[in-house]
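Example record used in the benchmark description.
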Amino acid sequence: MQKEANKVYKEILEKITVTREDRVKIMALARELKQKVALACEEHTIKAIVRIEGSVAKDTWLKKKPEIDIFMRLPTAIPRRSLGQITLKIARKATEGSQQIERFAEHPYLEAFVGDVRVNIVPCYDVKRGEWLSATDRTPFHTDYIKRHLNKILRNEVRLLKKFLQGITVYGAEIRTGGFSGYLCELLILNYKSFSETLRAFAKYMKRIIIDIEGYYAGREKELQLLFPEPLVVVDPVDERRNVASAVQPQKLYTFIGAARAFLKTPNAKFFYPPEAKVLSAAALRSKLENRGASLLFLRLGKIAAVPDVLWGQLYKTQRSLRKLVELNDFKVLRDAVWSDEKTVSIFVLELEQHVLSSVKKHLGPPLERKKECENFLSKYANSADVVSGPYIEDGRWVVELRRKVTNAVEFLKEKLSDGGRNVGVAELVSRVFKEKFSILVKSEVVEVCGGNREFAVFLTDFLSGKPFWLETAETEC
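Model output (structure tokens):
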């Protein structure tokens, strides 16, 4: 099997390894942008140390996927509340004429597209190691650390890991993805020394993976477990109080584990280059939705005024609240998700066993040996108008049958969200849009949305399948 894997590695590396010509071209653009940012800083009378950071600086970027990070190390006298706005002014000036998107991490920064190259212009403070004032202050130290420790062979191993994670859609630490950052990939390769050993380590996952390259917590393992509760812990070599993997959503970690096992069993280039997304026809979607057996509800709302990173934070918070809301009212949630084009429409998906419940439910009381609890139960329900039948004894405990207050999930959600839903946990920006207008589509009613939106049709096709492409690849090869 290792022979087959090595063949795949060679094939992929030929496609993603940066050539000398690639490096010269991108570094020339990076230096040009660095100069423009420096000049823009001077025009705004801002004293800044401008540096090239990220994968280009560390030479771990993928051919055809260059991304340039320009950081401005700014004086600590600049207030935090002003940091983002100052940066945006400078960044817009430096990338004038390019497509620009405002992003948000701990503070605003600018993403621009110069030709086909993504450029991030980010502020941080010029501080000493450990004296962090913002999260981005660590980045120059990360760059220096990786450049000291990664040789050419390891840099190619990083490229393999990044491409694999991209293929299984778990690469990227932005809120929308909640996956593995480039820096995290570099540290994993530093720790395991190769892409294949990284896969083997994750394939053996048993509840937790802890990596402490610098040995900060040697002999203090219990302290480490208390400080970092996440299932994947990678102690930052430049800051022992930080888990580099804290942004990785558990589901993304588990996807990596599953895909690692599948690849080791059946190596295949498709893990790195997945097949083109399939889209079911409107008729096929309608048939699947109507004959699925479960009830799919789609809460559709319009534009939410927020930059993408803030938007996804708001959407995910609302998604968790909606799930909790329906579950507390006896609706069984099979799966839930959220999709957005980040511009004009967002859609929450709730897959319920059924969206209309019977008007009566069984409510179990305490077992007979708990005398005091039995007395309280009988006191509450013996003469309650909500009781349809009982109290009666069944299998050694008191039981009642109660009339449900909520039986229809659609009507219930419309009622709870009509005022925005802030009191049931809906995030503030989403709440404003709910208050203005939203609709709930049931089962095949959502197909009309797919007709004018291929991205949503791809999402829905994938959601209905529920099966990752790489599992199909492994099964086919087996």
